[in-house]
Amino acid sequence: MSEALGYFLMSWIDPGLLALTALGTVAGIYIGAIPGLSVTMAVSILISFTFKWDVNEALALMCGIYLGGVYGGSRTAILLNIPGAPSAVATAADGYPLAKRGEAGAAIGLTTVMSVIGGFVGIAVMAAASPWLSDLALKFAPRDYLMLAIWGILLVGSLSGESLAKGVFAGALGVTIGTVGLDPLTAEPRFTFGSMQLSAGISYVAAMIGFFGVAEVISQVHDIKLKAIRQDVSKILPSWGMVRKYLPLSLRTSGIGVVVGALPGAGGDIAALLAYDHAKRTVKNPSRPFGEGAYEGLVAPESANNAAVGGAHVPMLTLGIPGDAVTAVIIGALYIHGLNPGPMLMIQTPHLFWFLVGALCLANVFLLIFGLTGIKIFCKIMEIPKPILMPLIVVLSAVGAYAISSNPVDVYWMLGFGIFGYFLKMYGFQVAPIILGIVLGPIMDRSYRQAMIAAEGDLMQYFSGFVTEPISLVILIAILLSVLSQTPLWPGKKKDQPASANAV
Length: 504
Description:
The protein has a two-stranded antiparallel sheet with strand order 1-2. By secondary structure, it is mainly α. The chain has one domain. The longest helix is centred in the N-terminal third of the chain and has 35 residues. The chain is globular, with a radius of gyration of 22 Å. It has 23 helices and two strands.
């Protein structure tokens, strides 16, 4: 026990590791806040620089960037309605309306504290329940991942106003966009129409920036003469009363984040979506209606996506299976440093596990410190006059779309999706389900293929698994309940309007 504690505290007492963790966290926050500069890309680039480093130094820096980057995506989601990462899509639904009310400082302060709480919950579960969670994740069949993705598409209906049909249509459109390119199994072109450019697929980063950034800029042109809203940053740190009020919701959604994060390939994107839907269904009297600046709409996804970081480490360390894209890159880093992630890692190098737990805890502490600083500078963005801010956003969006693969075609896609997104908004469609559909599309495609191969093409055997396997049955029931809960029981009967409450 004392040896484990020594490895846990290693990054806390070693000045070099302490500095690397702090540097990684602050860099992750700002990298995550810039659309197009993903945490996965940052960690990938780091591998080449840390090749000759000691493994502890490399992991300390990566842990900081990982935790900081997951949180950083909420900054631009709140201020500009441009999520820095897909896991911040749900955050934008209520964060940006709060910024338009002049409450960006309070929104960022609350997301910071709740992200830290979610992060500690995820790390605690990672340390205490790794074997149990890895066993649960191992029992998920490809069929279960397919249904989990379908469930996610259906849940986006809750992000799309009162119309489930519009939400499902937008999600299905996103899935279609996500499957453009070469078939992953047969290499046959799909939806490419003979274009070589489409063979590589469509960058979800370009789509995300276009649908959120450019579409928002075009929408703002109608109100270009309105004065910028002055943000209240006099009180950034939320009161203890506010933290205590939202703590139960934060803990519940953190639990969702841990479990989803431990599912290989799921990650914080799905965790944030499920947590947001959970909040909409369970919170009876939100501070404001969801989608109009409800603080609960910030607490749920931000707690979940940071908790998913700890969950994603579980299958990575115990099974050698990445929980998300970032842990997939970290697995590569471990291989480069001569380690073999998987069951033997816990036996041969148990000290590495406790070092990772300590480094993640330290990064979470730095997240609280750095997350609550620099907010005044960020909030000044909202006070820039629109004739200056809007063109600047377009330029930064173009740079972000180009930076991901240095391909000018991505800039054209970004502009096209921006114009398309503007017209969708005009007709009452939300663009968040499209982005989530793009992310979930490849998961659905891959899982369906694997499930059919496992069933040897026998449809009876394939479909019987939905009701004979316990996990599949539970997810199927959840899907049915999701559809029924968003469908009026009687023709012509409207859903209850969300209860409006006074602002906190």
